[in-house]
Every structure is written in C-alpha cells, then in structure tokens.
C-alpha cells in the first residue's frame, strides 16, 4: 500500500509524507497525522504525466485478454448472455481475470479481439499511462474484431484499480467487460493476512444487447458477477484481519453495510487515506474503489446493500447484493458456543475432516484453501479446485523436494500421496494461503 515511486525524483516533503502515510499503514506503525499544508505540498510535488516505458525498474509483466460471448447463471435460474474477458485457453468470466502487477513493472496487456464487436481496454485509475494507452476510442483507438492491440504502461501507484471496455461503454460495460487491476508494492509489509476483491454491478436480466436504443432496467444486483445466494461467503476468522477491495463497476450507487463490526476504510481510488476512518456503511459510486480492513470475529453476519431494493432479484427478496461474512464459531451472549448454522451455498468452509478417506477435495476460493486440513489414507489423492479468477499455486514438499502445481483460474490438479506423513503446503504468489495434508 506504500505510495513510494522509486523511479521518480521526489521532494523531501513528498518522501516524508509518503513515509508517514503509506508505509505506516503497510507496516502497522503509529505515526503523527499529516498536516493539511503537508498534504497540499505533497500534491503539488506529485509528478504527473506519461512515465516512459524505459523507466521500468522491475522487468516486464505480460497478459493476454480475449473477449468471448458466454452464458452465465447470475442468480438461481437466471441465465444471461455476457461478453467476458478471459485468458487464452481458459474459461472467460465476469468479472474478467484479476490482473496483479507490481510497482515498477512494465505492464503489457494485449487485447486480442476474438469477438464480433469492437472493444478497447481502459485502465481505470492508472495515471502513468500515455494517452494512446487510455482505451478511449475517439482519443486513442478501438480494437476491431480480429485485431489486437497491446496496452503498455509502467505501474507506479500501488492500489486497487480496474480495467474495462470503453467502446459504447453503456452497453459493453453492462455486458460484463470489466475486471480488477491490482498494483502491489513488493516493498510493503501488509498488516492483513487475507485479501478479497469484490466488484459490484447490476444487470437487466431481460436485456437483449442487439436491441437498441439501450435502456436497461436493472433487476439483478451482483457481487463478482453473482446475486445472492450464489455470492460466495467471505471467510474471516476471529483473530485475523483481511483487506477487502471494493469496486463499483456498475451504473448505480450502492451503500454497503456490514453487520456485527466496523471496518477501517484505508484507501480510496487506489490512494491511501491520510486518516483512515471507521465505518459500517460505505457509499460507493460507479467507478469508485475503496480498500477496507475487516477484523474477523465470532459468528456469521451479512454484508449487503442497505438500499433494500438491491437486495432483490427480479423484485423478489432475498436476493441481489447480499452475502455472509463467516467468522469463527458463533458465541451466545453468555459466552457459550451457539448452535452451528449450516450453509448450503457458497464455497465449502467446513473445518478439517477427522476421518481419513481415499481422496479429498480442497476448494480454493477468495484466496483460501477450504478445508485448510484434509486427512487421507496412504495411496489416496487430493484434488485442488481453483474457484478464483486468479492463478494459484500449490507448493508442496515431498521427500525433501518442493513441487509446484500451478492452477489457472477455474483449473484443478490432483496429487497422489503414497506415503504417510504431514505435508504442509502454500500458494507461491499468495504465501498467506496455507494448508496441510495428513496422510495416515
Ligand atoms: Cu467492448
């Protein structure tokens, strides 16, 4: 979350302000609040404009995105046509795959237009790019069917950004052409142990994209492309603090209210706030991004749009923008354990199974392995299923050798364990994701 810009000349005031604001948050250290004058000075010293590609300090990060027409179930029984970004050879999805880059990298995103409409890629929130890379058809160019174009920039500011199509934006954005673009600062030491990205959107479930003029009437309200009860639960156990990145890439304002706790709002539109603030209800307008820290607690509590009309699907309650935050087991008011609530939707979040079986399945969802611990018999196998839209790795040490299994978004891999033992594993790009295989 640090905002240090290693490749630029900074004034001393700017350096001091960056140290006070970003680094203190990322490292969890106390610091004096910045002054108004200091913040204005920091703004005036802020370098603006195109950062030359030759100024990259950390090598090249490349992605290729295609566009495909897909059909998706956005709410139980509600199937719609979508135009979805996807990596070549992998299932396209709404939102499109999350792109993660690091400060200082030269980022190359090639849009291969495999669809029958012109599209572009607008890099929402990235201020270091050249105008021709901004993806606005009349100021740069459109990418026609069959064409490709590579959008290139040097990542400068750590934070939560987005990408989306900017061609006939009212239709194309509404058809699902968006995704998160996260810029990470590899020098920052985050205070959170888990991370979640939630993208808000609305859908007109009766909409036909071929019918013009386009006058949508939204009746389905989505988080990461799904309406309640298809939105996965968010697991934040007591004792842990997670970063939740909230992006509104829809067309309507939303008012996200979390029951049972208050969160700390730490960044807006990719910028660390000089004074993070506590809230339990966050208004988020189209195009805005907020990063909030959520501490886990006991019990399961809803997080939903407090505009109750958006808690419906096609007018029926409950539906829409509503999901559960699952903490540690609920306690009664007298401190004794409360009866367990069972969940019949979302990703599996059951505790470790105690009986060894011939095989086990570990679901990867929202940057977690669930269950974290599985028991199998010697000779059995474990299958990991990646439900996230980012790649994960399973890095295992077997017989003293570390073995890496890469799981593309929505991919799966099975590993056989011939010998008894306890095998700890983790995800390489997300080392806070950990799990264990017990072979008996
Ligand atoms: Cu488009």
From TrEMBL:
<dbReference type="Pfam" id="PF00127">
    <property type="entry name" value="Copper-bind"/>
</dbReference>
<dbReference type="InterPro" id="IPR000923">
    <property type="entry name" value="BlueCu_1"/>
</dbReference>
<dbReference type="Pfam" id="PF00394">
    <property type="entry name" value="Cu-oxidase"/>
</dbReference>
<feature type="domain" description="Blue (type 1) copper">
    <location>
        <begin position="361"/>
        <end position="440"/>
    </location>
</feature>
<feature type="domain" description="Plastocyanin-like">
    <location>
        <begin position="206"/>
        <end position="297"/>
    </location>
</feature>
<dbReference type="Pfam" id="PF07732">
    <property type="entry name" value="Cu-oxidase_3"/>
</dbReference>
<feature type="compositionally biased region" description="Low complexity">
    <location>
        <begin position="348"/>
        <end position="357"/>
    </location>
</feature>
<keyword id="KW-0614">Plasmid</keyword>
<dbReference type="InterPro" id="IPR011707">
    <property type="entry name" value="Cu-oxidase-like_N"/>
</dbReference>
<keyword id="KW-0186">Copper</keyword>
<feature type="domain" description="Plastocyanin-like">
    <location>
        <begin position="93"/>
        <end position="187"/>
    </location>
</feature>
<dbReference type="InterPro" id="IPR001117">
    <property type="entry name" value="Cu-oxidase_2nd"/>
</dbReference>
<dbReference type="InterPro" id="IPR008972">
    <property type="entry name" value="Cupredoxin"/>
</dbReference>
<feature type="signal peptide">
    <location>
        <begin position="1"/>
        <end position="26"/>
    </location>
</feature>
<protein>
    <recommendedName>
        <fullName>Multicopper oxidase</fullName>
    </recommendedName>
</protein>
<feature type="region of interest" description="Disordered">
    <location>
        <begin position="328"/>
        <end position="357"/>
    </location>
</feature>
<dbReference type="InterPro" id="IPR045087">
    <property type="entry name" value="Cu-oxidase_fam"/>
</dbReference>
<keyword id="KW-0732">Signal</keyword>
<keyword id="KW-0479">Metal-binding</keyword>
